[in-house]
Amino acid sequence: MRLFKMAVAVDQHHGFKAFNRSQICKLQSFGHLDPNIVELNQARTTFSHHSFEQAAFQADNIHRSFSTPCLPLTTLSSGEDHLNYHHHPRVEIVSGSGAPIHALVVEVAIAMASGVNPTPLPSGLGGAYVFRSQSGMNIAVAKPVDEEPLALNNPKGLGGQMLGQPGLKKSIRIGETGIRELAAFLLDHGGLAGVPPTALVKFSQAPFFVSTINSDDAAKVDPKIASLQRFVGHGFDAGELGPSFFSVSSVHNIGILDIRILNLDRHAGNMLVMKYDNNNSSISSNYVHGVADLVPIDHGFCLPEWLDDPYFEWLHWPQASIPFSDSELEYISKLDPFKDAEILRTEIPLLRECSIRVLIVCTIFLKQAANAGLCLADIGQMMSRKFCGGEELASEMENICLKVKASIPRGSNNESCNCKEVEERSKCETGGISLGDLNQGEWEVFLEVFDKILHGVFQENRCKS
């Protein structure tokens, strides 16, 4: 098989340049990967009082050092090779870190250098590609941001609009679902929900879709930014198997994440059922009722720019009405929305502050509701809008936020509204409630009042029950 030169960047700041092989450098192999570097001790569903914080919020047993691709050590010897460097496939990490991410990118780089082209996936409304190894094993799924639904290079005939415009979900802009895929992975502390390793990467000279046949125009869209996620081997999705097969802890763990990130699109097709027996495709042979584990994928429609109507497939599943376990309640109590906000600001600076505020509000809501004894279904119902006489009504959480905003004197700390705030306020016309129109002083007052009102609401519900 023909091998192509390529550069692989396993560091966010720079990549390796293309080299010529030295006479004294023997290129033994393309990469030497310690299989242990991708091992993570998954957080258990039960935690001791003393070990919970370490187990839930740190992925332990990660090898911090690992072998990178073995590339020749000499520099370019000819101008022709220097020019050809830009025509070879390359992949570079834009955002994302840790051994599992680096290992994933190296595997994809090896596949690209070996001449194995990514395969387009027919399902979904946006462009998605699966990378396979030389042996045919699925490695990862890439989703270029310019091939999202409605985006200019959408390969499914649903494109034509520029990045940054309102997308399928008006509260999430075209081209910004990839950063939300990464955000869900970063917020899944300890891997509780099982979001696969995800990064934001830059592909150069990769055979992705381009909507024009003009080669000059095609060159303008290269390189491409894409989300890259570890492929999950699975037997079915949740819609093919049915909720009676799923474990309570798996449903709860996904639900806890969905509430925190206000997931607008948690449907049965993006919850994968882990595969247990590769030699038998019979559902009854592979799975036992109540024990199958789910893996959540496709988080591009989370963290909207304003409070929007979520969709939780698990809302009416029987597992959602079972009370949280002690370990789940402890996990929720340890969540720190302000620490999570700083993680997103640091790791994903392109994520808008109004979306980060949605995370903070939803996490506070979850923590208070769980502390008051509400189950997953109760919390999901309070966050979901209702329909009455063909009219969509605001959710209970939205009504609480409206009440809080109405109680805040506008212009706190004598800060004036700038153009960005005016733009955010106009979004309320879509039916959602914006948190981005509050200046810093108003936002701090909002959080203080919100916390007090929530406490009263849940205390009242507890007395009624």
UniProtKB/TrEMBL annotation:
Domain PI3K/PI4K catalytic: 115-416
Pfam families in the record: PI3_PI4_kinase
Record-annotated membrane-spanning stretches: none
Keywords, ordered alphabetically: ATP-binding, Kinase, Nucleotide-binding, Transferase
Protein name, as recorded: 1-phosphatidylinositol 4-kinase
Taxonomy, superkingdom: Eukaryota
Keyword Transferase: yes
UniProt-listed Enzyme Commission number(s): 2.7.1.67
PANTHER family registered for this protein in UniProt: PHOSPHATIDYLINOSITOL 4-KINASE GAMMA, PHOSPHATIDYLINOSITOL 4-KINASE GAMMA 8
Keyword Acetylation: no
Family: Belongs to the PI3/PI4-kinase family. Type II PI4K subfamily.
UniProt cross-references to PROSITE patterns, sorted A to Z: PI3_4_KINASE_3 (PS50290)
Gene Ontology MF terms in the entry: 1-phosphatidylinositol 4-kinase activity; ATP binding
